[in-house]
Amino acid sequence: MSDQDDDNDSVDEQHEAFTESLSSKLISDDRSPTCMLSQSQLFAVIENSITAQPIVDFFYNEAAAKQRRDEARLVVTKLNRVKSRRLFASLLSLLRKVVEDESYQHHEQDEEVDEAEITRSLQFLRICADLLASHLDSLKKNKPSVIDEAFEMATLLHELLFPLHQSPSKYAAATSSSIFSLCEKWWHLNLEDREQLVTQLIPLLLLSSLDEHATKSDVKRLYSTREALDLLDFGDPSIASLEKQLLRTISHPLFLQCKEGKRFLSHLFTVDAGFISRLHAAVRVQIPYAKKSILNAYADIYWHAWKSCSSSDHEEIRVSLEENAIQDLTFHVIHTANPTISKNCRMVLDRFLLYKKDPEVESMLYRMYGPLLWRSIIASNARVRLQAATVLADTFPLRDLKSNVGYNAVVTKTVESVLKLMRDEVPNVRVAGSVCAAKILGGFWVAIPSKDIRILLNVCCVVGDAIIIGSFVLASLLHNVSQRVNDTNAKRKIEIIAKHASDTTSSAVRATAIQTITYLLQEEKTHAVLRPLLPSLGNMIHDKTEKVRLSVVKMLLVVKKLKGIKYYHVVPAKHLLARLAEEARGKNNPTGPVAKALTELLSNSFFPTGSKTTTADVIGRTFRLLQDNPDAALTFYRNASTQLSVHSIVKLISALMKCLCFLIVEEKKNGKEDVSSLELSHVVEEEKGFFYSGEGENEIGVVMMATIAESISVLWESIEGDLKTTENEHIHELLLEAFSGNIVTEIFCHFENKVGDSSNESTHWNACFRALVAILNCAGKMDKNNFEGLRAHIFAELDKSWDSPPEQRSKANFTPYVSLLCAWGMAEELAKCLALSISNYFAGGRNKQPLKKKARGKNAHSSFPLLHIDVCLNILGRTLHGAYPSVVVARESILECKEGIDAIVVALQKAEEVAVGILRPIDSPPLNADEELIKNIGKCVECHGRIHLHSIENDCSMTLPAGAMVLIDWVSEFIVPALIKLISQDNTLRDLDISGISGVDSPMSSPVSASVPRRRSSRCSSFARISLRLSEATLPEGGSFNIYQEHSKFTSTIAAAVSCIRSVMLIFAEWLSICRVCDISIRSYPVKWCEVLKGSNETVRKALLPIFCRVAILCLMNGRDSAVLDEVLTCVQNADLITAEEQILSSFTTSLVSSQDEETCKVAIASIIRAICSNNQKCELNGDEPEIPSSILGRILIPLLRDDRGSLMVAQHLIGDTRDNVMIAKLLEEVATHAPKTEALNKILKRWANDHATVKDGTAVAVPGAFDHNAETDFST
Q: For residues 1108 and 237, what is the distance between their CA atoms, to the nearest angstrom?
């Protein structure tokens, strides 16, 4: 056995002896384990311990160990200096041994690790740190010098922080935390040599605060020791790793979210002048994409950093901060090309602008912005000028307090700069200039001289750059001098208003002008000046741009709150109502921001509130609004829920319902009808004296009733969602009471009888139909079980359609019935009824009314009568085609019924089977087909395709649905070949007239449709993007279709084929116009179908040419694909077209001229010229002389040549074509003959003439007209 082992054994024996003696001493002292620890016991444990183990056992391994540690810390705080030295001297010797032996950490060379020994050492280190910390607590009051033993122990413990940080032991973290607390206390007590106890503390606190599990308390601990950073030498390369960690704090969310973290970062900017540039570079990386909260944090950091170093003691830091950080931000505010970066940098500097009235801040802003701002206002880059305008408003007045330049000189210079901005040629810069002028005037109205105010207002108060008041008038108002305006200035004012009020160069400038006035109205002292100007802005409420209109309404809302200015003096009430009505028309949004703002403006006028307001007052104003402008009233009530409570709107609905009952009863009484049995009369009797009674003709009363019904419907619709909440259940019950009993059914029957009266005029009929739709919309919001009579009445009306004339049956609109039934949840039954009726027709029923109706039971469709085919296709077509909101909802309901929609698809496919039977080969007997059957086949094919289109979930789908592809394949593989074969064998067709399939007067003769709006879901759209109606999809009514008067056996088969092709092509065009994208393989189908145009005469071409032109344009617009157009031109280039066909092709080229897409025009022009050149080559091979003006393709080109833009694009294409100079010269000659004489076109023609010459009889001659340099040309530029 070695000597070291003997020493270890002796130490163990001594430890056992000490433990026994200590236990006996405690027993002899007669103290229980829970008794207070005495000083003698503490000294006995520590002084008698040769190793750390007895101390650790005493504080950790015995009963009540935690309490004993607390008591020991309390005992240490009671020790005097002598006893403290005695205590820590004993601990110091043991601590040195633990540190020397490194028994607190693992060693790589040790094969076996004594975890117990490591744990005892770590616990001993923690005891030493805790007792030292308690000793420091006793120094807070007296603050004597620290004893040497305590400092040496603290130094030893501090040097262990890095090793403990890397230790894998679970006790190392607790020991490190105790040493952290010790070092922090030493630093906070400002004890001597405290800088020696932070060299390892600061890096470790920094790492803990950057850890992914860090909390705000970690950041606060680091912030509390921030002054220790001042001791670091940032020029020393040894702290490079610490610098990297400090730079990480700049973008760490924890530092940017808490107050202490931001203050710590502010302090970082003040520790070293050379470190500022690196810190700012780290901030710059974050600014472009930072959120507003992060930018505000950086603003606080820069502001507090600058404030803390503004004293003379930190001059070097301040200069470095301004030059390396703030100056860079100010530069990017003005000169960056990205507006987002400019805005974000401006937000970072926002704190300085808030305190710009501080002399020190004002001087700093001048030092930063002065060298940049004034030059940037006149910079050549518009973006720089725009951003400089914003800075000019934020920094005004930008001046040097140390110079002799006076305040008035600064104002004068600023006014001159603002005028330059407001008269800039770029609209956005003018907008920025107007905003700048508004901020300056609004913030410094009193401090700015009157002449400068006058100068700014002369340009600032504009209508799209329009000066709206003369300077002399403003000067008079400003000086409150009552004097007459001389004639010169009055004329100047009129001239300026007349000249600039119609300026349409920029809607943003017009909107900003209104916003400028609105901003100035917030300053009370501006009212005297602006009051006479406001009426000049009134007409802008009808501006074509929504942003401008909204700015005007917002200005009126501000004026409404002012005393002495009435908003209806600025814009008359009639104009406000007209604008409110117009917001519901066209592309405007009836629930958009302008409509809502107008509703807020007029809410007190048409729905007064207050304790003295009665229901009669509200009804009176309501009827006045309904009479003055019914359309405005509907828009107002559509947005009333934004201003009124649900209870108020329900009360209004109930009152309007009673008024409607009163008007109906009065009308019946005037017509000598008995009303005693009506429930309406009982409502009137109960509320006698309440109702409004108007005077006028009967027709006016019907229009008023229709408007009341629509108002009830839109009011209910506006609060429909709110009524479903629990808190509004009792209000919903009050609303249902107003519609209880047979009231709704009696009102519906009243208006339905009027609709059925064909003797009524159109206005009267339309009003009744509007009322019907509104009442059914209200009924759809209630339980269907409450309207058994109404439901039975609807079924009876559908059944009566069998007895109606065919024309009336086809034109009847059953969509209100459909919408109501779907709202009641009967979409499935309706779909199955339609499917059964269509199947019955194509199965041989042929519109024969069943002798016995099916009993109404619980089956899916038994409650519906069997419908006429015209009614079925009418309902199905209008539902799939319509865009009215209630129709859209009904369509959604039907499409969601998978079983019902599948049944409809199966029924519609029977029409295709019948078409196949009609188009059998010639040797087979064809089916009997009359005009009505062919029409219905076409309608069914179209409805079938529309159902598949509505199944598209993604607007950008490049492939058609599988069902639609089946239809296209069916046409491609069967219908088109059959039609081509029939045309080739049917010579009598040349003498027939089937123009009724698509005549020149048909809407499909024009291949252009309205622009297609983007949608989110194809199901919610009507897919009605072209003007072809369902009833016009195949054959026309009446005698225009006389093909059956001929003797050809192929007449009905050809008509059926044309009808099917037209219907499927229509669906294809609808899909292209909605989805805007198309796979090239799908676009190849119409190219193949163009074969039907070859060899056919004008009858078939006139029927199919419009839809082919429509598809050609859509392919050009969506994919720049001219394949369809090339094939169409090839098919018609040698045909003898009649006038109607030439008109169709001319409308095609006219649509190209009107198109705003130049690329589409260029591709189409290239296709036409390519076809002309190809035809010319064929003529030369045949020995014929091509005549461009008289040819079909030449006549197609003429409308393009007669347009300025079209002729210019044709000429540009021709001069770049190198295929055939002779042909190009002839075409250019046509351009010179037909095109308007413009300077740009003449330059192109002359340039081509200089480079080429035409050959005629072997002699080179110039092209006449435009190619003659001496020719006198009247240019119109």
A: 78
Q: In angstroms, rounded to a whole number, what is the distance separating the alpha carbons of residues 42 and 54? A: 12
Between the CA atoms of 79, 83, 84 and 86, what dihedral angle is there, to the nearest 10 degrees? -160
Q: Kindly report, residue by residue over 870-895, the tens digit of the pLDDT.
A: 888 888 888 888 777 788 888 888 88
Q: CB under 8 Å to 1070, separation ≥6 — which residues?
A: 945, 946, 949, 1023, 1024, 1025, 1026
User: Residue 6: what pLDDT?
Assistant: 45
Sign of the CA dihedral running 777, 783, 784, 788: negative
Q: Residue 660's Cα: distance from chain center in Å? A: 41
| Torsional sign, CA 818, 822, 825, 826 | positive
> Helix, strand, coil proportions of the chain in percent (round to 5)?
70, 0, 30
- CA dist 95 to 53, 124, 463, 829, 1017, Å? 12, 8, 85, 92, 77
- C-alpha–C-alpha distance, residues 661 and 688, integer Å: 12
Helix (H) or strand (E) holding 658: helix 646-670
Q: How far apart are CA 1181 and CA 1192, in angstroms?
A: 19
Report in angstroms the alpha-carbon separations of 656 from 606, 631, 779: 14, 17, 16
- The identity of residue 1025, as a single letter, is R
Round to whole Å and give the CA distance between 866 and 339: 66
Question: Residue 240 above 60 pLDDT?
Answer: yes
Indicate the pLDDT class of residue 334, thresholds 50, 70 and 90: very high
CA angle 1245, 1246, 1247 (to 5 degrees): 90
Query: What's the count of helices (H) and strands (E) in the chain, helices before strands?
Result: 63, 2
Nearest partner of 401 among 392, 410, 412, judged by Cα: 410
The residue ranking higher by pLDDT, 438 or 1024, is: 438
> Where in 620-779 does DSSP place strands (E)?
none
Cα distance between residue 990 and residue 500, in whole Å: 62
> Beta-strand (E) ranges in 507-621?
none
Strand partners, 1260: 1255
Q: How would DSSP label each residue in 996-1059? A: GGS-TTSGGGS---PPPPP-S-GGGS----SS--GGGSS--SGGG--GGGS--TTHHHHHHHHH
Contact 810, 936 (CB under 8 A): no
- Cα–Cα dist 830/822, whole Å: 8
- What confidence category does residue 9 fall into, taking pLDDT thresholds of 50, 70 and 90? very low
1100, with CB counted inside 10 A (0-12, 13-18, 19+), is buried
Q: Say if CB 556 and CB 571 are below 8 A apart.
A: yes
Q: Is the pTM of this model over 0.85?
A: no
Is 1151 in contact with 1113 (CB distance < 8 Å)? yes
Residue whose entry in the numeric block shows the structure tokens 């309007």? 656
Q: Among 764, 766, 725, 772, which residue's Cα sits nearest to residue 744?
A: 772
Residue the block writes with tokens 């610098």: 243
Taking a C-beta distance cutoff of 8 angstroms, is the pair 877, 870 a contact?
Answer: no
Helix axes 1098-1119 and 1139-1154, enclosed angle (nearest 10)? 10
Q: How far apart are CA 627 and CA 1154, in angstroms?
A: 41
Choice among 903-912, 1154-1163, 1176-1185 with the minimum mean pLDDT: 1176-1185
Token output for 86: 């005695």
Q: What is the DSSP code (8-state) at residue 844?
A: I
CA distance 5 to 82: 37
- d(CA 938, CA 911) in angstroms, rounded, equals 8
Beta-carbon contacts of 985 under 8 Å, excluding residues fewer than 6 positions away, are 922, 1050
**746 neighbors 808 (Cβ within 8 angstroms):** no
